[in-house]
Amino acid sequence: MIKIGILGAAGYTGGELIRLLLNHPEAEIVFANSESNAGNPVSDVHEGLVGDTDLVFSSEMPFEAVDVIFLCFGHGKSRAFLQEHAVPSYVKIIDLAQDFRIAGDDHDFVYGLPEIHKDTICHCDHLANPGCFATCIQLGLLPLAKAGLLTRDVSVNAITGSTGAGQKPGSTTHFSWRNNNISTYKVFSHQHLHEIRQSVRELQGSLDASIDFIPYRGDFPRGIFCTEVVTFDGEEGTAGNPDQSQLEALYKDFYADAAFTHYVDRSIDLKQVVNTNKGLVHIDKFGNKAVITSVIDNLLKGAVGQAVQNMNLMFGLDETTGLRLKASGF
User: Fold this and answer.
1) How confident is the model at residue 162 (pLDDT cuts 50, 70, 90)?
2) What backbone phi and psi angles, to 5 degrees, belong to 245?
3) Which amino acids are annotated catalytic?
């Protein structure tokens, strides 16, 4: 049984993580830390867990009693937390913020995208969970990167649900503003671009082209729907410009061993993945251009579902353990 501590347990990701771990056959939550909610039942904040658990938020952090901790903080807080608290070396760490996603000499965190780093994840102690937009966009682009096909500028449009902004209310998450509305933000400057470019360079060896990413706020609660437009060079059917059947074969081969990411032969939609840990990908060819569509649930494959998948790998379990979740389909 894996003994688990959760830091920042009162937010959306904390609540979804608790929900998954309560139903995980090899997991035991030892503590769910929240300073502002200490002493209150977890189900008072995460009301969907009423009747499922008697767990109470704790101000204590007994690191010595756990095997792994999940950091569900806002961006920038994980690094500060680890500098201020002595976590025993035998305790594994899974960070859901962006603090350690970019490789550097100042940390030993592994970037946890299982589709490309499964072997490394299996042997790591410190893991940086990918961002939600970054996960969805990479699932669409990385098969092309591995084939060395991202040589021209890439256009990306992706829309995310309101849970992507976190639980704390804000001017762009208020229901009366978000409902029946759509808007862009952080155009061409979203922080997830850094980790996307890092992965593309890793697989392709270089990336001279730009990735022009326009994020959208959607008026639905959860999920990410992404479209990516890439341009190829040369005559169709050649190495630099695969035809439709060649592209499909490339994607199917890339994801042949992926536990949750699947290439789909027909157009995909968001409801196929909401409330699951799946990532679905589809590609269509138009002359020397291709449009890739990818979809995930931002809170699951884009956050805690992928984090639990990584935990399973880190502790030698089948990566699907506790994660066979079903989409409603309607």
Assistant:
1) confident
2) -65, -35
3) 132
3-state secondary structure the chain: CEEEEEECCCCHHHHHHHHHHHCCCCEEEEEEECHHHCCCEHHHHCHHHCCCCCCECECCCCHHHCCEEEECCCCCHHHHHHHHCCCCCCCEEEECCCCCCCCCCCCCCEECCHHHHHHHHHCCCEEECCCHHHHHHHHHHHHHHHCCCCCCCEEEEEEECHHHHCCCCCCCCCHHHHCCCCEECCCCCCCCHHHHHHHHHHHHCCCCCCEEEEEEECCCCCCEEEEEEEECCCCCCECCECCHHHHHHHHHHHCCCCCCEEECCCCCCHHHCCCCCCEEEEEEEECCEEEEEEEECCCHHHHHHHHHHHHHHHCCCCCCCCCCCCCCCC
Residue pair 121/112 in contact by the 8 Å Cβ criterion: yes
Q: For the segment 12-60, what is each residue's pLDDT rounded down to a tens digit?
A: 899 999 999 999 999 999 999 998 899 999 999 999 999 999 999 999 9
State both tokens at 73: 């903080």
Treating both helix axes as pointing N-terminal to C-terminal, what angle do 305-314 and 114-122 enclose, rounded to 10 degrees? Answer: 40
- Exposed/middle/buried for residue 106 (C-beta within 10 Å: 0-12, 13-18, 19+): exposed
Residue 330, C-beta contacts closer than 8 angstroms, at least 6 positions apart: 271
Residue-level pLDDT at 168: 59
Task: Please give the torsion angle defined by the CA atoms of residues 305, 309, 314 and 317, in that order, rounded to the nearest 10 degrees.
Answer: 130
| Axis-axis angle for helices 244-254, 132-146 (nearest 10) | 120
Q: Would you state the pLDDT for residue 173?
A: 67
Q: Which amino acid appears at position 170 of this protein?
A: G
How is residue 290 written in tokens? 């291709």
Alpha carbon dihedral 238, 244, 246, 249, in 10-degree steps, equals: 160
